[in-house]
Amino acid sequence: MKEEKLFRKIQLTGGSTLIVSLPKSWVESVGVKAGSYVTLIPQFDGSLLIKPRETGIGETSEIVISATPDMTPSTVVREFIACYVSGYDFIRVKFKPGTSEHKVSLKKNLREKLIGVELISESIDELLAQCLVGYKEIPLDVALNRMSIITVSMINDAIGALKTLNRELALEVSVRDNEVDRLYFFMVRQLKRAVRDRTILNEIGIRGPRYCLGYRMIIKTVERTADHASRIACLIPLMGKAPSQKIFDEILSIKEVAIKALKSSIGLLSKFDLKKANQIIDRVEDARLIEQNAIRKMLDEASKTGVDVINLRLIVESLRRIVEYGADIAEIAINLSVGEP
User: Fold this and answer.
1) How many Å apart are CA 296 and CA 234, to the nearest integer?
2) Mean pLDDT, residues 261-283
3) Disulfide check for 99: which of 49, 83, 95, 126 has CB 3.0–4.6 Å away?
4) b/e for 16-51, b at 16 or more Cβ within 10 A?
5) Between residues 26 and 262, which one has the greater pLDDT?
6) Contact by Cβ (8 Å): 35, 60
7) CA neighbor of 184 nearest in space, from 250, 123, 230, 248
């Protein structure tokens, strides 16, 4: 139906009841008639959402993906994830001859990257997956809190592994990044569903449609933060020598700033504090000064002890970026705290 602005005059009937007529074009397009029930849903912005009562009940959606030999396995995985976050209930993948590697890669990524996806049938040339977990099972705030807790633990353990070059712990941190990805894709799926169906906004803890964009940016920022923690962990096996205590203390200082910025910025979403939000943003400059001081000490030691300047430089850069990500979340929180005009 073509989107247009329609005006109706509110009328009084029965002495106390206010009524308004429904547009004929809308009535015909959704199939309601005299005697039908509609659902009225008050919105946060003062508007009223009218929906046919039966809409969406018992309906499921399915999409088909075709995997061909000219596609890489990662291409098929990305297309599947796109369908998942778009909100499809069933995703059917048809495999052309010569794509056995694609199926193996896809099944591996389903296990590692996506929440609530189960294979319900499989043959040599086809795979059917169903998305079982809905928005009610894992509310948005619960998923985001879990995502931030895992990310903080990754940062702590990555720096802990750096102190003694603990390669086993570093590997475990990198693997943990998959859990963050699982939560990230699931939350994107939730938010896209909320954009299409505003009736679930309150159920997932979103105050209105405009908050969906803010939360979408926040969860992407947390996901990128976890990527930097994983990046730090991946650098550790490449190093031949642990940093000196003097350099490690500098790294520890910026790590503490990074974790505080991330945890505090996430906390603003449940209890907003303008003063605290601005303090988080101001810590970015502190992190940059610590980074510069750490680099100077690395360069001073490089000629004496052969310290691994390149990898240590990348580590402190990632920690500084995490502080900046915390500031980004704080800025989004400030924007979301301002009421709509």
Assistant:
1) 24
2) 94
3) 95
4) eeeeeeeeeeebeebebeeeeeeeeeeeeeeeeeeb
5) 262
6) no
7) 230
* pLDDT average, residue stretch 114-129: 93
In whole angstroms, give the CA distance from residue 101 to residue 246: 48
Is residue 71 within 8 A of residue 104, CB to CB? The reply is no
Q: Is the pTM for the entire model greater than 0.90?
A: no
SS3 track for the chain: CCCCCCCCCCEEECCCEEECCCCHHHHHHHCCCCCCCEEEEECCCCCEEEEECCCCCCCCCEEEEEECCCCCHHHHHHHHHHHHHHCCCEEEEEECCCCHHHHHHHHHHHHHHCCCEEEEEEECCEEEEEECCCCCCCCHHHHHHHHHHHHHHHHHHHHHHHHHCCHHHHHHHHHHHHHHHHHHHHHHHHHHHHHHCHHHCCCCCCCCHHHHHHHHHHHHHHHHHHHHHHHHHHHHHHCCCCCCHHHHHHHHHHHHHHHHHHHHHHHCCCCCCHHHHHHHHHHHHHHHHHHHHHHHHHHHHHHHHCCCHHHHHHHHHHHHHHHHHHHHHHHHHHHHHCCCC
Considering Cα of 162, then 163, then 164, then 168, what sign does the dihedral take?
A: negative
Write the single-letter amino acid at 127.
L
Where residue 19 falls (left for φ over 0; alpha for ψ -120 to 50; beta otherwise) is: beta
Strand partners, 41: 49
Tell me how far apart the alpha carbons of residues 105 and 306 are, in angstroms, rounded to a whole number.
41
Q: Which residues, other chains included, contact 160 with Cβ-Cβ below 8 Å and sequence gap of 6+?
A: 166, 169
Q: Which residues contact 262 (CB under 8 A, 6 or more apart)?
A: 148, 151, 152, 155, 222, 225, 322, 325, 326, 329
List the one residue out of 258, 338, 325, 334 whose CA is nearest residue 290. 258
Beta bridge partners of 12: 18
The amino acid that residue 193 corresponds to is R
CA angle 6, 7, 8 (to 5 degrees): 125
User: Which tokens is 12 given?
Assistant: 């009084």
pLDDT given at position 253: 95
